[in-house]
């Protein structure tokens, strides 16, 4: 994609920049920011004028956002009425969006210009929510000028190192998307809990351990935030090549110097327990048992945990795009990026969910439950260490995989507990049955 954009900008200059930025602002997901960085870099090399680049980008952003605004304003309700049912949208959602833009519209329009994907849809959403046009236009123009100035300046200053600049800017922008999505999800989840607090208390009043569900959700939120905090910290260190990456290399060299053929054989076997093939077999086998027992809610949650974990791994690898350690190809059957460790993340999600299902349905003695959880934890740690011993991942890859896995596993288990509680009309499990 970067090579294509660079070639188009080199050939057609301002015209391509105008159309890419303008169409992205109109609501079509195109690489407008990449085009701006590339054009500014060409300006630094003397092929374009930096003033022409900035003027073109601002004009395209303002015009495109105006088009998106009026598309949302004139067609928003009609589109929701016609197609909203497919996305579970209705006019009540538009009314809430209207209130949101009434309270937070200016900062949303301004900041949205700097965040990938949100930059594409902010104007359409503002129009659909009927944000006052004058206010939209003011903050849209300010956002366009600041965005073009900041991004264009970066492209101009670092124009001689364009590929690395595009890579880091893409990482930062898409990381912002993930952060915004997670924060919005947590806020919406908490607001739902607050709205239904009375109903939940009424339901739990009929249950001997009445505060279980609320406690479980609180713990789930705390664990999710902890996982997010660790993952964000490790990711920042990896992107900026902070001292953690130096420790990565030192630890990998230390392990490589002490590795033996027997050790490679043992840890290659352990590593296979976290492979996609093994975990797919596990997912299908347990899924078959759950369907035979008609545990439909657990079945949906079980499959969602595996599918969501796999998708999360793919997305994060494509965002960070960290190369594998030297020599990793000897143990890899196909190429993939290094951060985060898919084995670490998948094993934590898979064997964590297995421990949850076992202690929920079949193992009820406290000592046996502890043994199952400890056994799963030791296996997960062993799989993570095996990836280091084989030299196919860095230490920060494994930690990042664990952090992302904790985040997703906590969300899945919390969601399952809520769903089972509502299905039964009361919290479905006592604390003694949760891992």
Topology:
Elements: H1 2-12, H2 14-26, H3 32-44, H4 50-83, H5 91-112, H6 118-128, H7 133-157, H8 162-195, H9 197-204, H10 212-240, H11 243-258, H12 261-272, H13 276-292, H14 296-320, H15 342-361, H16 366-389, H17 395-424
Helix pairs in contact: 1-3, 2-3, 2-4, 3-4, 3-7, 3-8, 4-6, 4-7, 5-6, 5-7, 10-17, 12-16, 13-14, 13-15, 14-15, 14-17, 15-16, 15-17
Rg, nearest Å:
25 Å
Mean pLDDT: 78
Shape call: flat
Strand content: under 5%
H/E series: HHHHHHHHHHHHHHHHH
SS field, number of helical segments: 17
Q: Which parts are unreliable, with pLDDT below 50 for 5 consecutive residues or more? A: 203-212, 426-435
Which range best describes the helical content: under 10%, 10-25%, 25-40%, 40-55%, 55-70% or over 70%?
over 70%
What can you tell me about this protein's structure?
The protein is mostly helical and 435 residues long. 79% of the residues lie in helices and 0% in strands. The chain has helices spanning 2-12, 14-26, 32-44, 50-83, 91-112, 118-128, 133-157, 162-195, 197-204, 212-240, 243-258, 261-272, 276-292, 296-320, 342-361, 366-389, 395-424. Helix 10 runs antiparallel to helix 17 (395-424). Residues 203-212 and 426-435 have low confidence and may be disordered.
């Amino acid at each position: 994609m970067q090579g294509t954009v660079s070639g188009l900008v080199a050939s057609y200059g301002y015209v391509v920049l105008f159309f890419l930025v303008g169409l992205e602002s109109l609501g079509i997901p195109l690489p407008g920011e990449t085009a701006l960085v590339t054009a500014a870099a060409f300006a630094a090399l003397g092929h374009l004028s930096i003033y022409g680049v900035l003027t073109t980008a601002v004009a395209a952003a303002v015009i495109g956002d105006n088009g998106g605004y009026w598309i949302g304003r004139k067609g928003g309700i009609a589109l929701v009425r016609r197609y909203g049912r497919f996305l579970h949208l209705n006019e009540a959602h538009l009314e809430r969006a209207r209130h949101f833009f009434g309270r937070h519209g200016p900062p949303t329009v301004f900041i949205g210009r700097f965040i990938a994907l949100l930059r594409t849809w902010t104007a359409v959403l503002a129009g659909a929510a009927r944000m006052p046009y004058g206010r939209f236009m003011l903050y849209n123009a300010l956002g366009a000028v600041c965005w073009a100035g900041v991004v264009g300046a970066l492209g101009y200053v670092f124009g001689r190192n364009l590929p690395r600049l595009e890579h880091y800017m893409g990482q930062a922008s898409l990381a912002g998307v993930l952060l915004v999505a997670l924060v919005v999800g947590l806020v919406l989840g908490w607001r739902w809990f607050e709205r239904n607090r009375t109903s939940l208390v009424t339901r739990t009043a009929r249950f001997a351990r009445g505060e279980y569900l609320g406690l479980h959700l609180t713990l789930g939120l705390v664990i999710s935030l902890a996982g997010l905090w660790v993952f964000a910290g490790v990711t920042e260190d990896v992107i900026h090549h902070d001292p953690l990456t130096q420790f990565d290399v030192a630890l990998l060299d230390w392990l490589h110097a002490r590795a033996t053929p027997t050790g490679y054989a043992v840890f290659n076997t352990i590593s296979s327990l976290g492979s996609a093939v093994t975990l797919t077999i596990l997912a299908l086998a347990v899924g078959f048992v759950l369907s035979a027992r008609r545990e439909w809610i657990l079945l949906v949650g079980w499959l969602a945990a595996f599918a969501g974990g796999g998708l999360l791994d793919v997305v994060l690898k494509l965002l960070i795009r960290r190369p594998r350690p030297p020599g990793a190809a000897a143990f890899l059957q196909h190429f993939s990026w290094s951060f985060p460790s898919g084995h670490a993340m998948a094993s934590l999600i898979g064997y964590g969910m297995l421990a949850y299902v076992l202690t929920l349905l079949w193992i009820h003695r406290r000592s046996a439950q502890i043994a199952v959880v400890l056994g799963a934890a030791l296996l997960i740690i062993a799989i993570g260490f095996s990836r280091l011993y084989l030299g196919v991942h860095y230490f920060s890859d494994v930690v990042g995989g664990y952090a992302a896995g904790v985040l997703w596993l906590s969300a899945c288990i919390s969601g399952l507990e809520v769903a089972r509680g509502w299905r039964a009309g009361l919290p479905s499990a006592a604390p003694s049955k949760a891992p």
